[in-house]
Write a structure and sequence with these properties.
The protein is built from two helices and 13 strands; from the N terminus they run E-H-E-E-E-E-E-E-E-E-E-E-H-E-E. By secondary structure, the chain is mainly β. The strands form four sheets. Strands 1-2-3-11-6-9 form a six-stranded antiparallel β-sheet, with no helix packed on it. A hairpin with a 2-residue loop joins strand 4 and strand 5. Bound molecules: fructose -6-phosphate and zinc ion.
């Protein structure tokens, strides 16, 4: 890895970067246990392991002082009433923040911290979201047909803790409803006394 300035271009309307170092794909099977309707999840998966989201990454050293940047694309879709979403995570180095900039689509970021606070913030083109240190975060695409595309920037030493969310889930789920979306309690969320 060289130590020169890097650039990449995000050509509208697709907003896929002009180049990248790594392209990660996550499909339904990577999200087992996270959607509230497990029977519908199994039905969908038996038909097709659909692509749920993709991430384009640019490599930099995973050390303090560096910033990691890339593009996240959550495709439209639902498992039952629940919109397609990322796995979500805490940062392994818990006290590290992240900035998201929404380029395209409509969605929300579902967040919570170990103290029991939660927040859901809308993502729409042109919106910047600051995720403070210690807050787990998951992007959710609430559109029927359009991708949700965000640019993210976070500290090089942040790392990812997926295990905590895989085990306990998020407090809130984002469901289709009469409004654009409904914020509901997640029946699969594991309260602190059961962990
Ligand atoms: C990095 C970050 C994003 C996500 C991406 C995919 O810290 O928050 O780049 O990694 O949106 O989501 P996850 O990592 O939860 O699969
Ligand atoms: Zn993150």
């Amino acid at each position: 890895m060289n130590d020169l300035p890097l650039t990449y271009d995000l050509a509208f309307p697709q907003v896929v970067p002009s180049h990248w170092d790594a392209h990660l794909t996550r499909s339904l099977s990577n999200l087992r246990g996270q959607f509230r309707d497990a029977a519908e999840f199994d039905r969908m998966l038996s038909r097709e392991d659909s692509l749920v989201y993709e991430v384009y990454e640019f490599h930099r050293p995973h050390i303090a002082g560096e910033l990691l940047t890339g593009i996240s694309i959550v495709h439209p879709g639902r498992v039952g009433e629940e919109f397609f979403m990322t796995k979500g995570h805490f940062h392994a180095e818990l006290v590290t923040a992240e900035v998201y900039y929404c380029l395209k689509g409509q969605g929300v970021m579902v967040m919570e911290n170990p103290q029991g606070d939660w927040a859901v913030e809308e993502l729409k083109p042109g919106r910047v979201l600051y995720v403070p240190p210690c807050w787990a975060h998951r992007s959710v695409n609430t559109a029927d047909r359009e991708d949700l595309v965000t640019l993210f920037i976070y500290p090089g030493n942040a790392g990812h803790d997926y295990g905590t969310i895989e085990q306990q889930g998020f407090r809130k789920s984002i469901l289709a409803g009469e409004e654009k979306y409904v914020i509901a309690d997640n029946p699969r969320w594991m309260p602190p006394e059961k962990r």
